[in-house]
Amino acid sequence: MTKVDSQLQDNTANNIRLQGIGPTSKRWRDRLIHRLKEQGISHPGVLSIMGHLPRHLFIDEALSHLAYEDTAIPIGFKQTISQPYIVARMTELLLLRAEKLDRVLEIGTGSGYQTTVLSQFVRTVYSVERIEPLYERTAEKLKRYGIRNVKLDLTDGTWGWPEKAPFDGIVVTAAPDEIPIELLSQLSPDAVLIIPVGGQEQMLNVIKRVGEAEEFEREVIEDVNFVPMLTGTTR
Question: How many CB atoms lie within 10 A of CB 73?
Answer without folding.
Answer: 20
